[in-house]
What does this fold into?
Amino acid sequence: MMAIAASPGRTNLQRFLSGYGQEIVVLLSIVALFVVVGAINPRFLSNTNINSIFAGNAYIAIAAIGMSMIIIAGHIDVSVGALIGVIATIAGTLAVNGYPIWMAWTVPILFAVAVNAGVGALVAYTRIPSIVVTLGMLSILKGGLISITAGKWITNMPPEFMIAQMRPFGIPSAVYFMVALTIIAALFMRYTDFGRAIYAVGGNIEAARAAGINPERTVVGVFALHGLFAGIAGILFATQLQVIQSTVPPNLELTVITASVIGGVSILGGTGTVIGSTLAAILFACIGSALIFLNVSAYWLRAVLGLMILATVLADMARRRRAT
Amino acid sequence: MRSGTEDDSASQGESLPIELRGVSKSFAGITVLSKVSFDMRPGEVHALMGENGAGKSTLIKIMAGLHQPDEGEILVNGKPIKFASPKDAHAAGIATVHQELLLFPELTVAENIFLGQTPKTSLGAIDWQTMRRRARELLDSLDSHDMDIDQKVSALSVGNRQRIEIARALAQDARVLIMDEPTAALAEADVQRLMAIVRNLCARGVAIVYVSHRMPEIFALAHRVTVLRDGKHVATKLVSEVDETQLVSMMVGRSIDRLYPPKQGEDGDIILELQSVSYRNVVRGISLKLRRGEILGLAGLVGSGRTETALTIFGITPATEGKILIDGKPVAIESPEAARDLGIAYVPEDRGHQGLIRTQTIEDNIALANLKRLTRGFLVDVARVTAEARGAIARFGIRARGPEQPVRQLSGGNQQKVVLGKWLATNPRILIMDEPTRGIDVGAKAEIHLLMRKLAGEGMAILMISSELPEVLGMSDRVLVMNSGRIVATFGKPDATAEAVGTVMTKSYNKEQAA
Amino acid sequence: MTAARLLRHETILAVLTIIALAVLASMSDKFFTPENLLNQGRLMAEVGLVALAMTFVIVTGGIDLSVGSILGLTAILLGVFWKNLGLPLPAAILLAVICGTFAGWINGFIITRFNVPPLIATLATLALYRGLAEGISEARSVRGYPEWFFFFGQGEILGVPFQLWLLGIAVVISGVILGLTPFGRATYAIGANETAARFSGIRVNSTKLWIYTAAGFCSALAAVIFVSRVTTTRSDMGTGLELDVITGVVLGGTSIFGGRGTIIGTVLGLVLIQALKNGLALSGVKGDGTIVVIGLVLIGAILVGALFDRNRGG
It folds into this structure.
């Protein structure tokens, strides 16, 4: 270990592998899954299926980008699923009631940013753990949504509102969003002071303060950003089907958190990338789809997720123990 | 060896990178610094010496902007200045290499050097290429060609991490670099490299405040030395004008006029024996014998393995090698619980963190190590818990409102008495006391010393760890000196002089030589 | 004096609960009837059992998000052992409860052995246990339990629902353990300062292991009562239970940072929540609207607690 550390003669490849280990593992898993499942059941590789894997889960990947930032900063948000449900309903309601389409898209997103900035302020300035605040938010959003809408379905939305269903150049627009937002977020995290401050605050809050970073403002900012991504995810979620159910999508928060963790974001904060979480979200979608094509009951999907989180976390703990 | 001191005439203060005039500071009514003056000249290494509690760390915290002085003024380049926060000190060119190394373990070396002041491209994005190139240059200029700038800091040794902090200070164009016990946690090879780096920095005109107890380093590096004692300035001298003995007596001068209680009674049988006990590579082959009625002093610098030895005897870090015997019988001590049941008590060095539950009451704290004894059937006997606490309050003269007062409201000395009360209630036969009087006022100190003597007189075997030389010399019947995880010398009471013990403590032991 | 200090929050809470009960009683004449109150007690029992164990967990400074999943898994196993494996029902119940308890032990093992933060460890097992429940049951429910089994969830002794007796006994036992035994003292010590507890010879890891195992056991017991009450097993049983439980415990004055909390407080917290839910429902607020109130109450309670802490300078 120390021999490597002391040697500056590492190749760029080694450097790349050590910096992006988890991302590469996830990517290889996706490729392996396609090869193996495709060989067993070629229909897995059909255009329709691949489209549905990518387009149908893009909103999860986008929400996982924001969640990754939150976890890198050393926090967590268990209310993101409820928030996405609320956003979808607000957007759908606005669209159906004749508000301009641009408003139906942007108002819910601004709402999400405002809500999460509030959560961030509570977390940063009162030092209440984010898990507690977001647990409370979860029940407020969930209860509020169901009691106001009574679970009514929203239908007959104007076609021009359905942004996720548009297909420029034959590819679903949700995929464009996923790719573009992942790239933008990755560049943001790597090339801006704010992005690096997120890593610094999650890695060592005292050292961050000593380096002139304001940890409180950083936490509020990162929650607001997370709200932005959740907002966009919510709009895509609202517009991918012809109907919005006005309920909270079950267990979405868990899937999103799992994507971040398996994508290489350490649950203890300070490390990880948004590329990893997007890849992990795709990996889940692939696993879910593969279970169907392999005639394995999809009911086991969540058990697989649980095992994957556990394995990733244990590996992370072991790695950290070795490092110290 | 000493770099060019081109400005020996800089006494007019115009170009002094920092100067403190008559600075005083007190905390909660206790004066820790009293009218201390201190200045730095460009390119010099200025050693700051003194015992624990002498006021060194307060002085450097004032220079780093962490504390504001109550009295006196700070001048930078001859102009008075106020540091409201560490940021202001940074801006004035003063940087600190922290003992606890404030770094980001999951980020790369290059980023750790520049975080908070990263170079930008014309578009305002972080310029990683420039950052990595400048990081490389900085590390090369510190003769650290072997450090990989893309490595995560978590994978690096302490010595390398320290070099990153130094590089970070250079990246901020620091003119004064404060190094607080920089070699305390370093291996020998790293100490040599650090000394080379310090010389290199001086040659570039950086002034270095060098806080250390280690004489060889002081004499090899420093130009001037300032000694503090009890918060007062004792002397500032050119290193070439003093020798080791003079420095030690300047630091510990007070010890002569302090009275330690005399030994009572005779030593009894050997109760605790360690036979080449090791824990990983921190405690290396320790052998010692402890008798009833004896106070055995364990001297050494911070990081020399004293506390680590205590933790191994107490079962926090069970021995990985060697044998521990109690009353001549080998015992396995795998947990603090096992140690307690064998009659070992440990009064730890960090009271607030290891010794006490500060939010709980005196009686709760005292009961904690004695729950088994204080339980009737399945239930804790609350009346006995209170009675026990009242007993301890009376016996040790703890100044408190009563057994129900939370310990965080007590003074340091009274808190320490609560810890003692907790452990003496377990009826131990072996008492390990780690820094028994750290952060305690003089009166309480004397009380604790008296109590230790009394306990020993009653047949208790006491192993005392202390960084205060006078305390070690005054209290111990025998002194063992540790250095680099080993016992390097044993002194009987008559031979244990400040000079002799101090010399062995501060000597740089070559690993091979010691082995 | 110690007791007085500890009970201060509980006193405020008790007054608050009485006021809430009075207001709710005045809003609906159906509220303060014995039938309604006993029925509310019946509904409270499952959350209550788990909340008692959760109080210990949170007092140590930990958290257990997987309790709802353990409940679901135990319920499914109960059905599967009985219907699919053909075990006699008592044996199936016993075995399922053992499995649920074991699930709790696994949480404790992961947390103490590998130093995984409890939040993350139980987040993972939340998914894992629920996933196992879904995978094993494949969304099929089990029905047709014999009549005697419904006693646990629907029966009465001396006119009081069976599970209320059980809850009452559990309250007394856990209250005694936390308040009066060495184990309880160790629990507080660990939450207040784990290092100092270890340095005082407290068996930190084994204490925590016991506590997480107990949380599994309580969740498993709650599962049996739940199944008996609703006469069927489904894999989604207990979803979101952790929220109700944690809200009750925290509202009851247990510090989320550990080191402080009482069983009496937890009971008061539970009563207040159940009363709010029921009272709001009776006065015409739709079922889910009450969840909003719970969320607000949770955040509000912690906020007030945090401000209190700051003022005391602790």
Observations:
- Chain B touches chain C through 35 residues (CB under 8 Å).
